[in-house]
């Protein structure tokens, strides 16, 4: 893991090169104030102040140099507006010119210097560290924590499924818990089959080598408000007996992206010492194909007691989440958030960047959407439309795990989950992609945290109010 704390430091006046941030509107004013060789160089290079543009320019003294960095809007810096420069600048220390502060833009500066190279036999040698000196010392630790959390999600999702099974997810939780005052409990084997039958059924075909399990972590004062975070941990999804085609299976190492988001958020909460009683739940399974696989037409009894007819074994994520959501309710969760790479329908509707967001609580939903806008980690709310509940009807059981219609697949999946949320609990469900199909500055192709910072910001405001 990249040591982000070495790349962002409070500005104590040490020597550093200046970064001049401009946008297309204000560039003429900047040029007017910097006549001479600087202006001539900028004009010769046809630098226009557009986002992503970057130019080394002479410094204020002989032999020195600085950099001109184009941003979309100088009055509203995004988390990614410095990422392009951070990827290309020479090694050294930098500060923003004038009285500008990096704010959330420090996040992109940090993540632009993170690489996942565990499987490169000859990894490309990275440039030396580019250090940003911040005039906001109080925010340095916050930005470093967010970068660490984002990088954790990316690295876990990028790790091949052959090296990241249920046991490895458990190890990641236990490694974090050591020395953090976090208690970890893992249920597997007969206890899982008896207590969490749908988690067991989905993971049964991967026994014994990659045994399914429910991983729980608890932290905080039991007298504080109870917050539960649930993450879908399907380490690889073949689709089960409803086998996915090859193209659909190629990226299914990322089907544990919900678990990665949940773990990253839990780490942030504990590091920031929120006044909550935290309950992290990760059902970790592999949806494999073998003689022990659950079948279309099977009827499973959930932990809650509802009987679920299996229409499609590739709709397995909602099954394991259902047992975990039930467990969260048993412990009295007042606020409950789950992350899951749940439906392809969400991606068809909203594309890769926008997690489909559902909630049974309008205030919680509004908080999430507003926070997503504030931190440039956007969410999009979809409705829990009661009229589609009939699509989950079963002739033989209490409900089916998959709708009998090709329509509204994202909504019906959320409606299925809602059946397992305890009444009175403020609940939000994020159907996130956890993947970036094309690179952008500071955001390489591969695993990605989508919705993590939005939920962190919204819940932080809710639970850490003075």
UniProtKB/TrEMBL annotation:
Which CDD domains does its entry note? Peptidase_M17
Q: Name one GO molecular function term.
A: manganese ion binding
E.C. no: 3.4.11.1
**Top-level class of the enzyme under EC nomenclature:** hydrolase
Instruction: Give all residue intervals belonging to the Cytosol aminopeptidase domain.
Output: 312-319
The record ties this protein, via PANTHER family, to: LEUCINE AMINOPEPTIDASE-RELATED, PEPTIDASE B
Instruction: Write the protein's name.
Output: Leucyl aminopeptidase
Query: Native species of this protein?
Result: Sphingomonas kaistensis
């Amino acid at each position: 893991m990249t040591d982000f704390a070495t790349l962002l430091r409070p500005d104590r006046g040490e020597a550093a090169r200046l970064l001049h941030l401009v946008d297309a509107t204000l560039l003429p004013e900047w040029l007017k104030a910097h006549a001479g060789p600087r202006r001539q160089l900028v004009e010769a290079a046809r630098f226009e102040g557009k986002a992503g543009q970057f130019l080394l320019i002479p410094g204020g003294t002989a032999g020195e140099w600085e950099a001109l960095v184009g941003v979309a809007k100088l009055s509203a810096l995004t988390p990614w507006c410095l990422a392009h420069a951070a990827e290309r600048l020479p090694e050294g220390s930098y500060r923003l010119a004038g009285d500008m502060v990096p704010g959330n833009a420090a996040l992109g500066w940090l993540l632009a210097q993170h690489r996942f190279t565990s499987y490169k036999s000859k990894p490309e040698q990275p440039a030396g560290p580019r250090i940003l000196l911040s005039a906001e010392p109080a925010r340095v630790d916050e930005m470093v924590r967010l970068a660490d959390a984002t990088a954790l999600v990316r690295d876990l999702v990028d790790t091949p499924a052959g090296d990241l099974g249920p046991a490895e997810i458990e190890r990641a939780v236990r490694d974090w818990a050591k020395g953090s005052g976090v208690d970890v409990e893992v249920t597997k084997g007969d206890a899982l089959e008896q207590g969490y039958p749908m988690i067991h059924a989905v993971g049964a075909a991967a026994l014994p080598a990659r045994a399914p399990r429910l991983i729980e972590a608890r932290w905080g004062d039991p007298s504080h408000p109870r917050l539960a975070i649930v993450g879908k941990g399907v380490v690889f999804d073949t689709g089960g007996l409803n086998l996915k085609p090859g193209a659909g299976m190629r990226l299914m190492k990322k089907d544990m992206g919900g678990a990665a988001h949940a773990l990253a958020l839990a780490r942030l909460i504990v590091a920031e010492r929120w006044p909550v009683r935290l309950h992290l739940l990760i059902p970790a399974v592999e949806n494999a194909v073998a003689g022990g696989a659950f079948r279309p037409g099977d009827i499973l009894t959930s932990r809650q007691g509802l009987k679920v007819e299996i229409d499609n074994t590739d709709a397995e994520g909602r099954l394991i989440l259902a047992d975990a959501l039930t467990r969260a309710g048993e412990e009295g969760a007042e606020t409950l958030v789950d992350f899951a790479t749940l439906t392809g329908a969400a991606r068809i509707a909203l594309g890769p960047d926008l997690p489909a967001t559902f909630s049974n609580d309008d205030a919680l939903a509004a908080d999430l959407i507003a926070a997503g806008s504030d931190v440039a980690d956007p969410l999009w709310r979809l409705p829990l439309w009661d009229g589609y509940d009939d699509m989950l009807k079963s002739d033989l059981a209490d409900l089916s795990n998959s709708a009998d219609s090709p329509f509204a697949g994202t909504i019906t999946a959320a409606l299925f989950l809602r059946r397992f949320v305890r009444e009175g609990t403020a609940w939000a469900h994020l159907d996130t992609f956890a993947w970036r199909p094309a690179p952008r500055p500071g955001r390489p192709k591969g695993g990605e945290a989508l919705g993590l910072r939005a939920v962190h910001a919204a819940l932080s405001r809710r639970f850490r109010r003075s």
